[in-house]
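DM from R.C. (forwarded with permission)

"hey, sorry to bug you on a friday — could you get me a structure for this? deadline for the figure draft is monday and I only need the backbone to look sensible"
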Amino acid sequence: MLKQFVTATAISGLMISGAFAQTSAPSSAPPAAEKAQAAPVDASKFVAAQKPDQWLATKFSGTDVLGPDNKKVGDVNDLVFGKDGKIEAVVVGVGGFLGIGQKDVALPMTAFEVVPASTSDANTGASSSTAAPSAAASNDPNDVKLKIAMTKEQLQNAPAFERYKAPAPARSTTAPGGGGAMGGGSGARPQ
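My reply, with the result:
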């Protein structure tokens, strides 16, 4: 019995070591056929870096929206892009508490003025120009807020923004096997 166990263990060990020996380490150089098929990359077709006058959509998500008195009236929940890639609207969440009871309204990007975050205090409406601006806020062109000429009350009374919902696919009136209409052959849709 012990002899069979030792033999089985030895055979298992040889099989496992053979399996490890057959798996090869990935080669750092691609095969010659892949090298021949790889086309050179035209670097002019790519954007290599963000410029100081450009913003990322992720930056605007959650950005404070200030009213005419520099008080916070909402925050950015989403951006609506057109097929041409331009921002058509900014979706602003207004009211509510921690997202509960919040209403989304959308305004065209032209309704907003991009202002440095260091120029106002969203909670008090006081200008921070008398205080020493922080080095990060004064040097970061992406540290911004959006300002509009509407009050919080005007935004709360604006029509709610409705997100697009694709229509439900139409039901087929034919049986899965293609054998005619359902419901006794009348061709009517079931109610």
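R.C.: lifesaver. DSSP finds five helices and six strands in the chain.
me: no worries. The longest strand covers residues 72-81.
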